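Chapter review: from sequence to fold.
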Amino acid sequence: MLTYRNFLPESFVPGRLYTNGRGGQGQLGHDITTSNDAPNCALPSAVMLPGDEAVVDVSFGSGQQASVACVTEKGKVYVFGNNYKSRLEPSKSTYIQKPQELRFPSDGLGEATNIHVVQASCGGMHSLYLSNAGHVYHMGGDIAKPKRLQLENITYIDCDHTISGAVSRDGSLYMWGKSPHFPFLTMEPTKVAGFGPSEEKQVALISIGSMYAAIVTTSHELFTCGYGGHGNLGHGSRRSCKSFKKVAYFSERGVEVVFVSCTRAQDGVKGGLNPKSSGNEGPHTSVLTSKGDMYTFGTAHKGVLLNLSKKTGAFNSGFDELIPYRVGDKVRNELERGHEPYDKFGPFTFCISAHIHAAAIGSSERDGKVGYAWGCGSNDGRCGVIRFLIGCNGGLDKMKCYLMAPNRVGIDNTTERVWKPNAGLEGMEVVRCASGRNTMGWICRPR
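The token string follows.
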């Protein structure tokens, strides 16, 4: 059985970082490329850090060219990728080609420079870092070096686009930034009403999406807030919410929520907001329960909800889910030959929702915890699956790589190997994953 504690930094497991997808500005952290669209990388390849340090956390920022920050077991931070607004390090470089250590200067608040970082989160123009002392540091824009915020006893952080959030040890929730979808935000960390030690609910985790947010409470309930025009809030409508509202579906059925992932790296969508039809590009939400079940809701665009089996873009289809859909239940468009229920890839232990694709860590009887990806894997190999390289019938599936079912990540199990640089994730167990708009990362350890 899972609890929210399985997803706190104290439970992070060290391993080696692998990345795949778009790499035009160093966001892959390595030099291995495919023979098709260098410097992209179609299957995950290892990121070599100085001293071959083990990684416990990784985060990808917004934008077509992502910023990346990874945290090592020793508490160091290495950054690479797009350096827009100095969100990664205080140089004038537009991007960082290879991982370099981020230094934390004296902040005048009595903390030494050699802090031990346990979690990182990259946004659109800024980055956040959490230390094992419960302190939060931010940088980007006018703040060229990591600067400590006036927050104490923080246990979890997240940010995306221009929004930030932090959870304290007593269950209080703090948010700050600027967004039309969150009218209560200010530019300084502010306690969100309704959550904390003196309130009925205490917060355990927060997921910040580009236009909305979700929290899991210590009583395993789910609350969502912000933009909801694609059905991504899970309340049975396309209405937005100006404050956090409980997703009643789970509590009414006694289902315990332990983790949630809002769509990241989606500061703009084709077709605009509040669409009048279904299947449009937009946000979609993934949720894990204590039993390892996965639920999804929001747009069904290109299969991101795992509620389809026949390949489709899902435009004007009526396949959107406005209330949580359990992965493995009856799909909305059955293949003529049928399909195996998608919950066979579980129980699931982690999930992420990205721009127009999604991923999870599932279970394999032979290989243990493995990575799966689905949705749109076109253009740059962002899903890290062999299907991008060989298609359904052989040949590069570059522009219509729509994955309706979970596809195993990083394994080239074809008769004739088409992936030359390395063996992907063969022999590895996946313990954590993350995604930007077009790039993904996998923390793995030997099986």
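Two observations follow directly from the output. Confidence is low (pLDDT under 50) at residues 32-37. The longest helix spans residues 248-252.
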